Structures are given as C-alpha cells and as structure tokens.
Amino acid sequence: QVQLVESGGGLVQAGGSLRLSCAASRSMSTIPTMGWYRQAPGKQRELVAAITSGGSTNYADSVKGRFTFSRDNAKNTVYLQMNSLKPEDTAVYYCNARGRYYDTWGQGTQVTVSS
Known about the structure:
Layout: E1 4-7, E2 10-13, E3 18-24, E4 33-39, E5 46-52, E6 57-59, E7 67-72, E8 77-82, E9 91-98, E10 103-105, E11 109-114
Parallel strand pairs: 2-11
Antiparallel strand pairs: 1-3, 3-8, 4-5, 4-9, 5-6, 7-8, 9-10, 9-11
C-alpha cells in the first residue's frame, strides 16, 4: 500500500502560478500510475493529469499547455506545476496512486483562483 501527503495549495490571482506536491510513502517506480484530480463545488471529481511509472503523461484538455506533471523519483514526490491559472481552476486537488491492488487518495489541497 501507499500513503500520500499533498501540499502547495493556496489563493492566487488569475494568471498566476502554483505548484502542488505529493509525497508518497514508497518508491514512485513501484506505483503504476500517479494522478492529480480535482473537484469543484457541485461538480464531479475529474482527472487533471496522470503519469505512469514509465514516464508517460496525459492531461485534461482544459489544462494542456498550462499545467505540467513531473516526478522526482529520488524524493518519491510528484509535482503539478500550474501556470496561467484561471478562476475555473478553483477546486480541491487530490493526488492519487493506483496499482493492481490499491487506489489511494491524498487528503486534498484547496486551490482558489481569484478573478
């Protein structure tokens, strides 16, 4: 199993940047898929970006070109660099680790983008 601890949320003006971090309790190379999801009030949780243990990434169309998902295997940490933030990016962001026998979520971190 794996435990996840997120950090880095906050309040930022539109056009600004934030970086979210998610530290895992085990080596990233053993986790098949890591993902960032978000959930805005009244909406379903949606995938923002995902990265596989092999390094392949995919992004939601709404964040392509603005968000970057990266991984530091030495620190067992993944990052979501969010640039050119928009008010519609406001949500609770969750880190996710998915393997054959587990599907683990972080506690969530609030991101608020003011217009």
